[in-house]
Here is the input.
Amino acid sequence: MKAIVYHGPNAKSLDEVAKPAIVEPGDALVRITHTTICGTDLHILKGDVPSCTPGRILGHEGVGVIEQTGSAVTSFKVGDYVLISCITSCGRCENCRRGMYSHCASGGWMLGNSIDGTQAEYVRIPHADTSLYPVPAGIDEEALVMLSDILPTGFECGVLNGKIAPGSTVAIVGAGPIGLACLLTAQFYSPAAIFMIDIDDKRLATARRFGATHLVNSSAVDAAAVIAALTEGRGVDTAVEAVGIPVTFELCQDLVAAGGAIANIGVHGVKADLHLERLWSHNVTITTRLVDTASTSMLLKTVAAKTLDPAPLITHRFALEDAMDAYDIFTRAAETGALKVIITP
Ligand SMILES: NC(=O)c1ccc[n+]([C@@H]2O[C@H](COP(=O)([O-])OP(=O)(O)OC[C@H]3O[C@@H](n4cnc5c(N)ncnc54)[C@H](O)[C@@H]3O)[C@@H](O)[C@H]2O)c1
Ligand SMILES: [Zn+2]
Ligand SMILES: [Zn+2]
Here is the structure.
């Protein structure tokens, strides 16, 4: 089969590789119908993720059809349409039993990291009963790919951890797919204001269409001063970091109001300063989280009910044969306007 294989920092190619097979009784083999590229795949290609070693098939998002099941799989059968969660979970270990699937003792973020991923014609999914979701009839399959990772990530790491509440003020730093997913799901809670901060005016314009109340280009203005002026000097109740670099985590510390929350989503490759000399007295909460995908079933229902429409996040479509072009377009997002690119084997 064809697959996108990581060959070490800055090296990837579309290769002919062996089709995966069932290994454990809980495995399912899924024929991929749609997959996509994540900002985290670009982190891997930069060499930021040492757990992903050369030879690995990339990708942790996708939908597909069950091709084969192991003897212990009871919730799915051959031919079922499924959503693949970016987090693999056994459902039984201590961390799974408290809903922290990202730290499952025999799972977590494995796909496209410690085991072969979804940017391929087929993928082996361990713990299939608890790591796949049935696809409701009539749902837009491409839009569903946004539920593998980015919507649960924006919602769990940003909205829930940031305790976004009715009437509250929110700043989201980073208007990439993750920041936009946070923006979309923040609106479940009717905050009074959502300030979107980025250095790319195209992405900020998208954020306006997605419901941002204020746009701040932090390369053109002092974002902290603008937000202080717009909040009567208080700052925001929730500052979400959705970029993954020190300067944006530090900006969040300048934006948060007393009693507020800084919710970090970004994957950080290097250390960032924490200004405790100022924040110690501000009663702030700082959270970090690897997405657990504990909210996936709930988000699926909101997509099925059309309360949440992730389809506008899709900007480009490619066949798997053209996956190198898909990576090129996605990597040059500032020029190409790419958000999520759908890849179809
Ligand atoms: N915690 C998790 O479980 C989890 C899951 C998925 C992704 N992530 C991470 O979330 C982050 C965002 O993902 P994405 O796919 O949206 O990434 P992305 O690169 O597409 O988007 C980042 C955005 O930040 C903007 N930006 C860059 N520098 C900036 C600056 N100095 N000030 C303001 N904005 C700036 C860019 O213009 C871009 O729009 C990444 O670090 C990704 O790895 C975390
Ligand atoms: Zn991802
Ligand atoms: Zn587990």
In short: The pocket of zinc ion (ligand 2) is lined by residues 38, 40, 60, 86, 149 (CB under 6 Å). The chain has a mean pLDDT of 97.
